[in-house]
Amino acid sequence: MPGFSLLLQTELVKLCPKEKAFCIAKALQGQCYGSSVKAETLKRTCPCACDVMHFDRIQSCCKTVGRREMEFCLPLCRYNTTLDELTSGLGYKCVSQLTTWAYCAADVGDNTACCKQKGFSFLPYYSFDKC
After folding, report:
1. Residue 55 included in any domain
2. Is residue 3 domain-resident?
3. Which of 37, 40, 56, 82 is the most exposed place for a label (fewest CB within 10 A)?
């Protein structure tokens, strides 16, 4: 699966040394994703582990699904890319990768209906972690 994270527990502990053990475990189990109360609580309680796992999963997906010759665009492949970044020089060079980023940030699924229901009607403003 393109969105699958290959991050190891030891790597996550190194990246988030102050995070509690249960945060590391829950993040590695993929429980930080989605808009459930449980996921939202984990994101607040375990911000480092959840952010690292989101970033790693989306990056893994973009590396798998995206065009190899566009690898220089990977810095923009994240769930919190801003409109300013998308309209920067790199953003313009990487516009062809926008659908890949949206696909990967949406957990490799089509969340269009959810985002429209929540009022996100213009792609760069989509908040995929809320859908």
Report:
1. yes
2. no
3. 37
Residue 96, in any domain of the structure: yes
Using alpha carbons, list the distances in angstroms from residue 84 to 2, 66, 88: 27, 22, 6
Report CA-CA distances (Å) from 40 to 32, 33, 62, 70.
7, 8, 24, 33
Note down the domain range covering 46: 9-130
Alpha-carbon distance of 9 to 118, in angstroms, equals 34
- Please count the helices (runs of H) and the strands (runs of E) in the chain: 8, 0
* pTM of structure: 0.69
Contact by Cβ (8 Å): 99, 72: no
The pLDDT tens digits of the residues spanning 61-90 come to 888 888 888 899 999 888 788 889 888 899
28, part of any domain = yes
